[in-house]
Amino acid sequence: MRRFLPKSLQGQMLLSVALGLLVAQVLSGVLLFRAEERRQEARLVNSLAFQLVRDPQVDLRDGRPGRERRAHRRRIRIERALQSPLTSQEARDPAREAALRAVLEEQAIAIDELVVITRQTARDRYISRALQDRVSLGPNSRFDPDGKIVLAGLKRDGADEWLVARAPVPPRNVGAMRGVILQTLILYIVLVGGLAILLREITRPLAALTKRVERFGGTVDGGPRMEPSGPDDTRRLITAHNAMEARIAGLLDEKDVMLGAIGHDLKTPLAALRVRIESVEDDTERARMADTIEDITNSLDDILSLARVGRPSDPLERTELSALVASVVEEYEDMSEDVELGETQRVALPLRTTWLRRALRNLIGNALRYGGQARVSLSRTDTEAIVRIADNGPGIAEDQIALMLEPFSRGESSRSRETGGAGLGLTLARAIAEQHGGRLVVANHIGENGSIEGLVVELRLPI
Fold first, then answer.
1. Number of other residues whose CB lies within 10 A of the CB of residue 445
2. Reported pTM
């Protein structure tokens, strides 16, 4: 259900207010409807009581209008009868009967018997015959031939006759509900509309700040400073972010200067050493010294690259990833390395080619170093392009995989120092993948007998 909810702050707040207002208006409508029904019921009971209390002027013992037409027109709802109006097919209405009894007792009416029933208008002979004579009912009659009436029969103490009063059952008051609906619409327009405008003024600078933070996190250089806008709290947040951004950028600039100086100061004596070892007469010793210098130089390059990967200087360029992978594999094939290019799919992505080429070289180099061969393939899903590098090496213990992604972390036995490197290959590849918004997935290849048969590294880039 959460996926159907709005994701933005503005949408969630508007939804909360709209639902709260809807609940409040529904409760208000229900209470108003019940109150209106109670008022209608009170008017109906009072109407019956008023007819029964006053002295009726019409004698309708046989159920037909009896005296002059003017009197009948005034007193059409009351009649005198010798028997109770309750028939064997009808049931009494105890709630209305109790309410009517209470009103009559307040008027000091001595009650011998009292019955209240609800009857279809068409089934009441008295009203049906009166309805046939439109003159006798008059133009303002509220009796509906298709509706219902409430009939009350009263027999006073010491009386031989029943007084029978009738009142139409009032229709449901839909006007009150229309008022509630109209009120709700007006509240939605005024309250929710005004809140939407206010939230827009609040969330607009927050959305701009979010984009700025995302851009700064991806490239560090976020461009010109963001101008504070919106409410005072939001302005203070933007101002604080600008100050933090400036400080971070300054620290990173200092780091770059320091790394450049370190790289220069270290590579210069290494170059001098490379020249001096040429005077060593022992070929074996000279080769070992050259390998050590080369190892130090490569480790230094990895360290400097890892430090600079967060601030790439080259822009993203749309590149055919399959062609890039094929070119890197071809480099190793030219050096007679056991690197095999498997199935690939065409995928064009915005990439930093130099950095991604470095990541692929690191991963393929690791596969060759520890597994003796590398099998490279490229596939894609709906959301990701996946470069897969597999080897036949000893793999990595499951509890050591996460550790291998950390800087200067190395495995044991076969992944020892003698194999070369400083333990930065996977770390640098992961950093380059994250630089492109992707991720690096490392897992062992498990054979049919349950043993580890190599390592599989996937460089996953978002499409």
1. 15
2. 0.48
